[in-house]
Amino acid sequence: MFSTVFLDLPPLVHAAGAVTLPGSKSISNRVLLLAAMSEGTTTIHDLLDSDDTRVMLIALRTLGCLVEESGTTVRITGLAGKLPNGSAKLFLGNAGTAMRPLTAALAVVAGDFELSGVPRMHERPIGDLVDALRQLGCAIDYLGNDGFPPLKLGKPALKLDAPIKVRGDVSSQFLTALLMALPLVATKDIVIEVVGELISRPYIEITLNLLARFGVQVQPDEWQRFTIPAGAKLRSPGDIHVEADASSASYFIALGAISTAADGQNGIKVQGVGADSIQGDIRFMEAAQAMGAKIDSGPNWLHIQRGAWPLKAIDLDCNHIPDAAMTLAVMALYADGTTTLRNIASWRVKETDRIAAMATELRKLGASVVEGADFIQVTPPASLQGWKPASIHTYDDHRVAMCFSLAAFNPARVQLRIEDPKCVAKTFPDYFETLFSVASSATSSIPVICVDGPTASGKGTLAAVLAEKLGYHFLDSGSLYRITGLAATRAGIPLDIANEAAIVALLNTLPIHFEGSHIWLGNEDVSELIRTEEAGMNASKVSAFPAVRSALIDLQRNFRQLPGLVADGRDMGTVIFPEAALKVYLTASAACRAERRLKQLISKGIPATLDSLRADLEARDARDSSRTVAPLKPAQDALLLDNSELTVDTSVQTVLDWWQSKQPF
Ligand SMILES: O=C(O)C1=C[C@@H](OP(=O)(O)O)[C@@H](O)[C@H](O)C1
Ligand SMILES: C=C(OP(=O)(O)O)C(=O)O
To answer: Does residue 321 share a domain with residue 218?
Structure first.
């Protein structure tokens, strides 16, 4: 997951390949609650692991349910409606699929419970559900504003005679919550009547489908009346598989529709969900097809290719696909006219006011947008000049972050920034990693920041922190020379120029790979081994051999991957990435560098003296800057930073400010 303050997306050009998507949020949280309330043990396969399912899992454990996790397989020992912990305070984040169904389930059993969430959850309505539960005799108090969480639930005095009326026009989750909870108390037939239009109907179908898997056959009547038969009992089906999330699939369906494939590849394959999905959002396929996408599907897979281009503008009632419809609003940027998405009033009470949010952010990119109480109308920029680089505010709404990433394919190649990218954790923590696994940019548009400088200048620390803050890859080029020195020494090859060819031959066979700050040689983590003074000296020797340097060029350039790279070394800006957008040459006085090195060695229990360290350091500077190939020197366009008197934080901030000043936002 990208936990950075923002994530800059360079212009994306192609996309092709296969993605396996995480489990459906709606199925995961329903199955977790049903399994916990039912009789018997349920093994859930391919459960979604995200913020919304985490809060549900923690809640179930807090209530005394046995939950055993092993990767994405979770085993739940059902409580058969009897809670060992009759009093609990539950924090449910911003998960509607946890807050609403748990409210109903806990309100009908005896106990004292408090349910709360993030501030936005306390602005998301729950009054219609509370009103319905109060008709049943449930004791519910509002702890904050009337009609909204947090809630306090007490002991109910159940009255099951009259039909329970629930409004269906604000959220379908209220009806879902009642349908899942009432089998716990169905000593007689219980009838639920929907008042007003029922929105987001396909989610009720998911609920009915899963209730049937847990042994409860609800009798629906025209979407207006639902009867839970007397004696209904939740019984575990044993094993249950969670399909991949169809709403998450919408971003990759859109990706297939708007991108072209690089040579020899064709389209995007989505694995884990197919056209026969039980999730209503799979019907996003039809909308994408209407806009021009070519889609094939089979059991649990979809294959999407670009068809009509530009996309065709559509006018669609999106009530049945409220979540995936946000993706259509961004696809509209690539359409041949004005796209209108209707009947989406519920957008206003979700993770944020989504109609307002989409309108504001689409306008930033240059689109013309008209918004109404329950619709949005999007007209793309009229020409290439109409597109504007934009920093997309994401309002702690996963779907805003995910759908706007698709704007990185804009034909004007304007840059895009996604603020707070970690908000995708609600349903798809690795969304951006998944996107980068299939999307590609022209190499020249993948940003590189070079940090060059002499030994012990702190460039490794600075570069690693920069990479972390920007969410970029990190290349510690010096480590490649250190590994070469280590491997040659181990192979008994003396490190002198006469053995250059042998060292290159060896280098070409080395299985080097990086994992964060760890460097591996085959199965051996050599991160520590290559940090000794001796390894540094050996690195300096082999790095002076021209054939070794050129053998490492391609390897280093291959680190330039989406979304960007911070590379530290001695010739990053001069030789390896001469066209880098920002080059920093980091220095510090010899005295200061020797002192830092001394502290470092002492902390590792390695004896050393200041004088000898300073002498070694100066000798190394002299050798590095006088070698004929790629001598250590600042690139002509490098910005110099002397950090003798600076803290790491100040140096990092200085470079981040330089970087920011080069961005169009
Ligand atoms: O029941 C569900 O799993 C959901 C129902 C929908 O909400 P509304 O019924 O409030 O539209 C949807 O937006 C939400 O993401 C999940
Ligand atoms: C509306 C959404 O979430 P929730 O389940 O919290 O309602 C969503 O995921 O788009």
So the answer is: no
